[in-house]
Design a protein that fits this description.
Blueprint: H1 6-29, H2 34-45, H3 58-78, H4 81-86, H5 88-112, H6 117-127, H7 132-141, H8 148-175, H9 182-215, H10 222-240, H11 245-256, H12 262-286, H13 301-321, H14 332-338, H15 343-355, H16 361-385
Helix pairs in contact: 1-2, 1-12, 2-12, 3-7, 3-11, 3-12, 5-6, 5-8, 5-13, 6-8, 6-15, 7-8, 7-16, 8-9, 8-14, 9-10, 9-11, 10-11, 10-12, 13-14, 13-16, 14-16, 15-16
Length: 400
């Protein structure tokens, strides 16, 4: 039986948090979002450099996933559902184009380089992902979550997750030798959309009265505890229903925003964000293998060539999606850049392709390179195109 080495785990967490905060501050000092420093901290602590943080560790994986849930809870608390619905048309089109175009480009690149159809489909699928956590964190750091561009990005990212679930299930079936059916795809889509809609409809009836009832007891920290219980519970229900856990956490934030205790909950959740959220970004960075990026190693040349073309396809596809809602008069460049990072979502596709034997080690490294570059270029580009709001608050609800 495997026993958890508690002192070792505590030491690893201490190193990860210290590196995340130090490099996060350093990134801010040079005018970049803190998340960029946290990603760099992960790369340095990962197995390919210092070997102090193992992202495959069950314990660190759990802490990182809690970080995602806390982050999406905070983002939900910051999001005005009315504004989100008002840009629903724009978000839907950005999401649709942001999935279709990168997939077609990635598929075409792989076929042009002599790869098989299944490899091309799996690689193209990896290009469709969008890591809502990374973009949302940057927008929160910049205090720009209420801008129309940010609302379009968040809405598109949520729709992307629904589409991503469908694509993931289809690709998983293909890698296992199964042919996807129209009925199966429709069922997955209906579950994801239905879960979010049902959660919001039932939640509007249940959550405000529940919050008022708990408030009567005047227990210290009760609103914050309610938020965590709901976030964890709905994240679990989302997974059981076959949807993504982050949809449950995001829905919790949207529901609690409508309660009188919303600001109190936001202040109570913030310290948890300061602890868990950086661990998620460090874990994402730690998954990067820098050895595969050494251009002086001839064995890496083909990997770098394929990876480079996939990066171009990934960036062009998502950036162009920002221009899809032609009637929108805001900054389309911000929308396009906000959709670029693949983060942990892209790594899931890459890992699935490797585990199924569809990707060789070189192709896996090429897709990982695409994920890493798209993850790292988005924060500074967003900072450049979308400077911090002048009304920026002192507090940082996203855990930075």
């Amino acid at each position: 039986m495997h026993h958890l080495d508690v002192p070792q785990t505590l030491g690893t967490l201490a190193v990860m948090l210290a590196a995340a905060k130090l490099l996060g501050v350093a990134a801010q000092r040079i005018g970049q979002p803190a998340v960029l420093g946290e990603l760099v901290a992960g790369v340095l602590l990962g197995g390919s450099v210092l070997g102090l943080a193992d992202p495959t560790s069950d314990t660190l994986y759990l802490f990182a996933e809690i970080g995602v849930v806390i982050l999406l809870l905070e983002i939900g608390l910051e999001t005005d559902l009315g504004k989100l619905l008002r840009v629903g048309g724009e978000s839907s089109l950005v999401a649709a184009v942001g999935v279709a175009l990168p997939f077609l480009l990635g598929y075409g690149v792989c076929l042009a380089l002599g790869q098989g159809s299944l490899v091309a489909i799996t690689a193209g699928a990896a290009l469709t992902a969008t890591s809502v956590g990374i973009t949302a964190r940057v927008l929160s750091d910049l205090h720009r979550l209420q801008e129309p561009e940010s609302q379009i990005i968040l809405g598109a990212a949520v729709i992307d997750d629904v589409i991503g679930l469908v694509i993931l299930a289809v690709v998983a079936g293909l890698t296992e030798g199964k042919a996807p059916t129209v009925l199966g795809v429709a069922e997955i889509t209906a579950v994801a959309v239905g879960f979010l809609a049902a959660t919001l409809l039932v939640g509007w009836l249940v959550v405000p009265p529940l919050a008022r009832w708990i408030d009567r007891f005047a227990l210290p920290g009760a609103p914050t505890l309610l938020a965590i219980l709901l976030a964890f519970g709905l994240a679990w229900l989302a997974s059981v229903a076959g949807s993504a856990v982050i949809l449950g956490a995001f829905a919790t934030g949207l529901l609690l925003r409508r309660t009188p205790q919303a600001r109190q909950i936001e202040r109570g959740v913030a310290p948890l964000g300061h602890f868990f959220v950086p661990l998620f970004f460090v874990a994402v960075g730690a998954a990067v293998d820098v050895h595969s990026l050494n251009p002086f190693n001839p064995a890496n040349h083909s990997t770098l060539a394929i990876g480079g073309l996939l990066i171009v396809a990934a960036v062009v596809g998502k950036f162009a999606a920002g221009y899809a809602p032609f009637w929108f008069s805001g900054n389309k460049k911000v929308i396009g850049v906000g959709m670029i990072p693949r983060g942990e979502v892209g790594l899931i596709f890459a890992q699935m392709g490797l585990a199924a034997g569809v990707f060789s080690a070189g192709l896996f490294s090429a897709v990982t390179l695409m994920v890493m570059v798209t993850t790292f270029i988005a924060p500074p580009l967003l900072r450049l195109l979308f400077p911090p709001s002048r009304s920026a608050r002192v507090s940082d609800p996203a855990g930075g």
